[in-house]
Design brief:
By secondary structure, the chain is mainly alpha-helical. The protein is built from eleven helices and two strands; from the N terminus they run ααβααααβααααα.
Length: about 190
């Protein structure tokens, strides 16, 4: 292809070039999902306690006036889109699916797997440094589990929904999103 062709037909040139490069070096898709129950709890805390400039929303005043259980129930519909998107990702071909919970439980081996999947050559020492620099405690100055209600990185643990879901919230969540939790491997059945 000559420069003249490239200048006269740039869209054709770039389409052909990109198609050629993608065939030689296919895109590696990586998707990180999080337990929707923890997403709901985080959303409630962010809306209720996060910086007002970040969440210009009526939810702050609504959540301030209701008990935690009512807040979770009222906001549950807001995670529906997240659940729908996650479910579509579960079917994505040629995709590495990473659970946030696995990522924080064993970041070194999960990132090692990500590097292998993406065919990125990173020395174990460099990867270790990267993981350690981005550790919850390093970033926040708090150990995982130490809560700061007003922080974006509030607690740094998985499964905190267990501390906030009442029986009623759990039952309603099962009705609305139980199948999605099973499909994503967060639960084996509805007995949680």
């Amino acid at each position: 292809m000559t420069a003249r062709y490239m200048l006269r037909r740039p869209s054709a040139y770039f389409k052909n070039t990109i198609t050629f490069k993608l065939k030689r070096h296919p895109i590696r898709k990586l998707i990180v999902i999080r337990d929707p129950r923890d997403c709901l709890v985080s959303l409630c805390f962010n809306f209720k306690y996060g910086p007002a400039s970040q969440w210009d929303t009526p939810w702050r005043s609504i959540l301030a006036d209701v008990h935690k259980e009512q807040g979770l129930l009222r906001m549950m519909h807001l995670v529906a889109r997240t659940v729908e998107i996650q479910q579509s990702w579960l079917k994505a071909p040629q995709t590495l699916l990473v659970r946030y919970e696995d990522l924080i439980a064993d970041p070194h081996s999960v990132f090692d797997g990500i590097m292998d999947y993406c065919r990125l050559k990173v020395s174990p020492q460099t990867l270790r440094k990267i993981v350690e620099r981005n550790d919850f405690e390093k970033i926040t100055g708090r150990k995982p589990g130490q809560e700061d209600l007003r922080a974006q990185l509030r607690k740094g643990v998985a499964g905190d929904w267990r501390n906030h879901f009442s029986v009623t919230v759990k039952d309603v969540f099962k009705q609305q999103f139980g199948n999605a939790l099973v499909n994503a491997g967060y639960e084996d059945d509805f007995e949680w």
